[in-house]
Amino acid sequence: MRTLPVRRTLGTRTLPRRRTSAAHRRHRFDLRSTALFFVILAVLLSVLGWVARMVAGAVERRPGWVLVLVVLGVAALVGLRRRLYVVRAARRAAAALDEAAREAAEELDIDLIPRQRPAVVEVDPCYESLTPEEFEEAIAALCERDGCSGVEVVGGAGDLGADVVAVTPDGRRVVIQCKHYCEANRVGSQDLQRFGGTCFTVHEADVAVLVTTSDFTAPAAEYADQCGIVCVDGEKLRSWTDGTGPCPWEALPER
Fold first, then answer.
1. pLDDT of residue 93
2. 133 by DSSP, 3-state: which?
3. Of 93 and 237, the one with more pLDDT
4. Which of these CATH numbers, 3.40.50.10420, 3.30.450.20, 3.30.470.20, 3.40.1350.10, describes 127-251?
5. HSE (CB half, 13 Å, CA atoms) of 83?
6. b/e 43-64 (16+ beta carbons within 10 angstroms → b)
């Protein structure tokens, strides 16, 4: 009997494939890339050689032109360097100006803060020793003491005759002009006329008052009576200050 050879099958198991590492693939010699590199290198060397021959020929034929071109190139480089220096200097100057403007704006903001009178008003009865500005502040303080609201000192250039404005306790708008004069200098009719031309029409006063540390001339007092302006001389001012006399807005009836 013939004995058949026994066949051994390995089944469907597949042997693992050997993998090539990435480092090995990366360092493998690439003929195409190497050839391309040498071709590009040869072209660059050819171009550089051609440029060198052109320059050498130009120097031999026209050395003057070459010298001019070199000088122009150096001058251009120097000019560019100076321009860059000027630009940097301009930037530094602009930054310094910006900083100075910012500091000036801060100073102006500080200077423009309005003066605030103390909550407790103290009136100095010695008005003759005050400056005109302090006299206006003192009159404003009297208005505040006697119950006025919205008291403002607006005297100065372009005030059109109004030094102090306020609202009386009964709601009337009072406009006051202050004349800080010595006893020998009395308020004349021209002062009253200038004030009378603006107190009602421009400042829309319900009560117009002209207060002075001195006195009024007879024509000035007559004009004030005709226009309805309250005149407060030095004596009435002292009475208003110590509380023995009426406030100026109490001298006129309510409208």
1. 61
2. helix
3. 237
4. 3.40.1350.10
5. 6
6. eeeeeeeeeeeeeeeeeeeeee
